[in-house]
Amino acid sequence: MPLVRREPGKPQPDAGTEAADLRSADPERRRRAVRGLGRALDRNPEAAETLTGLLATEPDPTVREAILSSLVGHHDPRTAQALLPLLRSQDAGLRNGASEALQAMPDAVRPHLPGLLADDDPDVRILAADLARGLPAREASALLCDMLDRETHVNACAAAIDVLAETGTPDALGTLRAVAGRFPGEPFLAFAVSVAIARIEGSGG
Amino acid sequence: MARDIPGQPASDTVAVTDAEFERLCAFLYRRSGLSYGETKRYFVERRLRDRMAATGARSFQAYFGKLATDPGEVERLINAFTVNETYFYREEHQFRCLTGSLLDRIVARKPAGSPIRIWAIPCATGEEPYSIAIWLLENWPKVDEWDIEIIGSDIDTRVLKAAEAGLYSTRALMRLPEVLVAKYFRRTPAGFLIDEALRGSVRFTRANVVDAAEMGRYRGFDVVFCRNLLIYFDEVSRRQAAENIYDSLEPGGYVCLGHTESMSRISSLFRVRRFPEAIVYQKPAAPDDD
After folding, report:
1. pLDDT by residue (tens digit) across A76-87?
2. What angle do helix axes A122-131 and A137-150 make, rounded to 10 degrees?
3. Quick one: which of B66, B60, B76 has its CA closest to B21?
4. For A130-179, what is each residue's pLDDT tens digit?
């Protein structure tokens, strides 16, 4: 029979996490070092700063993914603080990766959300609206309504309405009806509002 | 079996407070990656009460204390939460993809003499790794030209014992053609016993897919079948599992998920590959690999 039975392999020692490994020219070696560092985060929270520091300059997507996956499980406020500037990155992959990681740590993101939802940059406000998705429904709904009441950028409004369609509570209905009237030249926004209202009313509150 | 003690409630009537429920869920998550919330409370409490009854624990505190000192009970608790319902030739289109599209690509880049390595995680009671073995023997013309290693792994040690025993009910064989049942199984009073040579060719091991340290021994696979597992994890555990599976694969190796699962929604590490038989995910072999 061509099928052969073998052991899967021997347990491997932890990958090197020396600074030299993190700076290696070989992405596979950097990735192993990053994963080793990620496994040590519980014992060594300072490693989160090292990882976030590497994130901004790491060119290899597989190493970047390993950094983000390590940070996602580490809900430290300092980690969130270090990831927030990446929401302004010109690199879409990095920006979205940071956003996904932040979405997985709602408690650490919570204190920053009011500021992010009022940021000067509409792209940051759009990502911030997505971050609110991770909060309890009533809290997310209140924050997004507060944003919508003053929001002038149509895409930022659309992002907030999308989230409200999923998590909005009946308290959001007044704000939603008002925002549709503020953008009469944007029929898609009126449609998005109607969907959100229907879902909130259909959910029974 | 636990005996009732006068004046104390039986385990099936023990109330579990919100804080205790959260504590147990957090413990399960840390040890297995399985993620439960309030909507699964009945499911969780039922299994907790079963384990409390089995160990004679009269309160949550007593049982939770036991978990801190008895690794065997931790294992039995996790076993109680795993879902092991499966059957032979489940999602057969992926096996067709294995022999129709994947293996030819794998052997085209593989040095002569090195084995083809296939991993089924989770493997439950063995239906999937044995299905892969039978499918290859029946459907891949090059099967005699290569050494093929098949490993089945699961976090549930109870099902691994059943997998090694290789004894199945009629229900587990419902999708298998009768001719294959006759060829690879022997009817016994206890059920259908899988062929001894097949049983001896698949290695079964315990593995926790979200534990990076534990997964470090699983390397160099050409194909990983990880079907209907990630749906039980939260986003953090799914990402950890994806990282671990990625590291377990050879460059250019493939991962097959359940038909309702999508790696693209979990991780950007893999490329989506659409073959005539199935959609699978590939670890890139090189930046320009297609």
Report:
1. 888 898 899 999
2. 160
3. B60
4. 999 889 999 999 999 999 999 999 999 999 999 999 889 999 999 999 99
The H or E element spanning position A93 is helix A92-103
CA distance linking residue B115 with residue B98, whole number of Å: 16
Q: Which residues contact B74 (CB under 8 A, 6 or more apart)?
A: B31, B67
Please tell me the total number of residues recorded for chain B in this structure. 290
Q: Distance between CA atoms of B239 and B245, rounded to whole angstroms? A: 10
Rounded CA gap, B153 and B136, in Å?
A: 19
pLDDT attached to residue A203: 60
Option in B144, B236, B242 nearest A73 (CB): B236
Q: Considering only CA atoms, which of B16, B18, B3, B112 is closest in space to residue B54?
A: B3
Those residues of chain B that have pLDDT short of 50 are 1-10, 288
How far apart CA B249 and CA B50 sit, in angstroms, is 38
- Residue identified by tokens 């953090």 is B236
Residue B119 · residue B153 · CB < 8 Å:
yes
Q: Where are the strands (E) in chain B, listed by range? A: 116-120, 148-154, 167-168, 185-188, 191-194, 202-206, 221-226, 249-257, 271-274, 279-282
Length of chain A as a residue count: 205
B125 phi/psi in degrees, rounded to 5: -90, 20
Burial A115-137 (b: 16+ CB within 10 A, else e): ebbebeebebbbbbbbbbbbbee
Closest CA to B106 of B267, B273, B287: B273
Phi/psi for B275 (5° steps) reads -105, 165
Residue range A6-61, pLDDT digits in tens: 777 766 655 555 667 888 999 999 999 999 888 888 788 788 888 988 988 899 98
Q: How far is B58 from chain A (nearest CA, A)?
A: 33
| Peptide bond preceding B122 in cis form (omega within 30 of 0) | yes
- Check A93 against B235: CB less than 8 A apart: no
| Cβ B163 vs Cβ B157: under 8 Å | no
Burial B46-75 (b: 16+ CB within 10 A, else e): ebbbebbbbbebbbbeebbebbeeeeebbb
H helix and E strand count, chain B:
12, 10
**Cβ of residue A69 closer than 8 Å to a chain B Cβ:** yes
Which of B159, B170, B248 is closest to B209 using CA atoms?
Answer: B248
Cβ within 8 Å, pair B153-A8: yes
Q: What pairs with residue B153 in β-bridges?
A: B205
Phi-psi domain of B166 (left: phi exceeds 0; alpha: psi -120 through 50; beta: other): left
Q: How many Å apart are CA B104 and CA B110, to the nearest integer?
A: 10
ipTM, two decimals? 0.73
State whether residue A65 sits within 8 Å of chain B by CB.
yes
- Inter-chain touch A104–B197, beta carbons under 8 Å: no
